[in-house]
Write a structure and sequence with these properties.
CATH class of the largest domain: Alpha Beta
Strand order of the largest sheet: 3-2-4-1-5
Shape: globular
Order of helices and strands: EHEHEHEHEHEHEHEEHEHHH
Structural class: alpha/beta
Number of strands: 10
Helix content: 40-55%
Number of helices: 11
Length: 274
Amino acid sequence: MALYVVGTPIGNLEDITLRALRVLREVALIAAEDTRKTRRLLHAYSIKTALTSFHEFTGEEKVQKLASILQEKDVALVSEAGTPGISDPGYALIAAAVERGVPVVPVPGPSAVTAALSVAGLPADQFLFLGFLPRRVLERGKLLRAVAGERRTLVAFEAPHRLQESLADLLAVLGNRPVAVCRELTKVHEEIWRGRIGEALQHFTSPLGEFTLVIAGNQEPVTLPQNTEIRDRLTKYVYEGLSGKEAMRRLAKETGLPRREIYRLWLEVADEQS
């Protein structure tokens, strides 16, 4: 028996794969994040497999019930749209299946992340996926500051009612970088807008639909701190009671220096303190 993690269309129902259709027909049960949307998909392809709900409010009891069913029957997991487990509550069932030794089989399909990256016109050889940006202003600002120096392309999801304030925070923290704002991907009102963050703020004054943001990484030259500054920080962390491992981890994140170099400086500081 197996849990099939099935990618389903993010909009256009024609984006379903032949393999996904076969799996959805053959499994004993489909666990769906949004049963209404999944029913529309199943109806479009005359699939009559039993359906049950599995969403962010699903409790542990339901997780274990489905995991028990997996001991005897095949189950397919589908999200509201796209690939399950990617910014999606399906992770809990996947983890339960893995814990019980049930095979977890990927059935690849659509994803808003890769769809947006493929048309953004920004480097996609490396990227950092941020998921949905935090709803609260302070948490969102903290996340953006943490990735401000990231040189890889950034990808994030955002809801229409928070798009304006998130774009404003992006502008304030990251600067006026190039961005691709992908709206309603594969749907009737699909829009792929390219420009800079400040221009996006002016363009999307009354946003509607689902948004995927592809943001250019930091292209400014990286100025690394001098060794004396690193040593001073390490010494400060020692006095604050941090372990060597935690101090080095924090500095690697703050400075971008190789861990090997930080470790060498840490040995020097530790020797001075002994």
